[in-house]
Amino acid sequence: MTMTKGRIERSGMLSFGDASLAVWEEGLSAARNAGGYKAEKAWERNFKRDVFARIVQQLNRLGWGCTVQPIDPRDVKHYGGTVARWAVERRRTCRKGDLQGELSVSGRSIKFEMWQDAQNVENPNGGKYDFGKERRMTYLQRLEMNRTRNCIRDYLCNVFTRYEFQPEKEPKRGPGGVTALEWIDNHYKQSWHYDPALRRPGGDDHCGNNRSADGDIVTHGARVWFADYHGRILTGTAYYNINNMWWVVTGKYDLNNEASFELYTRQPENLRVKRNADRRRKRLERELQKAVEAMNFERAGVLRDVLFPGAPALFVVWHEEHRLFHSPGFCGYTADKSKAGKFTADEVKGWDCAPNKVMPAALAKEAA
């Protein structure tokens, strides 16, 4: 790429995401309207030459290795050689130490994503497909990631005359960002319900907004207990959000958004016992269904005895209007009798009324 003198006349927006940088320009539609397909493709070539190539150049200066992946013969077979070549030319695979990246251009936008596969990876396909890429990075990896995208942002804003950086509407919470309390304070000040006298939204004293799981009153700034997604009891400080929802700060950077009826004002008993009976029941019923479908009746018998000890009478609930069975836990519907939720007599009390119909599980096939 030839050296340029002075700044280049281009306008666009830059923004940061989760360990990523995005560039967006608005000139493509105008070029298409003015000159049709040829003008559109000419604009895309200029965009790639002026912006995409400069980002590659800057990454190389920062110590990143950027490579073009080889053309996949399967793409040539399915889409043709020209399309396959275009597909690889608009992407760069990047790497610096443990950090990996992908730079891609598509139409009027460019995106540079970074991730790592060294630790804290949950997705079986790799860290690229994990949520929360930044918080999974080590301190040094996060420093390098921020340095890289800050340098690219500053470079593009200096080279192009009307490039602007659009900061995130909400500050990022976590190491290198704001604390949980600072994040809540910023959220309060942006809320339509903000009360300057209280320095937060009001309404926590309304009936139903502060009733706790143990029948007490949740107060702003008080210590509370709640069960997380896995059923483990956590504790933290409650701060009012809106309606019956409360922020619960459990650490310097950690917070949860919980309904008042999920909070306890007194420490629950048996903290080591998981509160996950509903999730356990649904999981066991799914495993029972899989065992029956696989004709593994020995395993199905074991699961049945775990789910329903004593062999009680079991029922299913049919919805007349939907013409479907209720799923386990009354969460959703299914047309497959084997996947319908199984309930005891006590669990279906009050459900045998229109549009629902309770029936013994053994007779469900005939009724459906």
What is the topological layout?
Layout: E1 8-17, E2 20-24, H1 27-61, E3 65-67, H2 73-79, H3 81-89, E4 91-96, E5 99-106, E6 109-116, H4 133-136, H5 139-159, E7 160-165, H6 180-190, E8 194-195, E9 200-201, E10 223-227, E11 233-242, E12 245-249, E13 255-259, H7 277-293, H8 297-307, E14 315-319, E15 324-326, E16 333-334, E17 356-360, H9 364-367
Parallel strand pairs: 1-7
Antiparallel strand pairs: 1-2, 2-6, 3-4, 4-5, 5-6, 8-9, 10-11, 11-12, 12-13, 14-15, 14-17, 15-16
Treating each run of at least 4 consecutive H or I residues as one helix, how many helices? 9
Task: Tell me the span between the first and last alpha carbons.
Answer: 70 Å
Going across the major beta sheet, what is the strand order?
Answer: 3-4-5-6-2-1-7
Secondary-structure element series: EEHEHHEEEHHEHEEEEEEHHEEEEH
Percentage of residues assigned to helices = 25-40%
What count of structural domains?
Answer: 4
Keywords: Coiled coil, DNA damage, DNA excision, DNA repair, Excision nuclease, SOS response
Pfam family, one: UVR
Domain UVR: 278-307
Coiled coil: 274-301
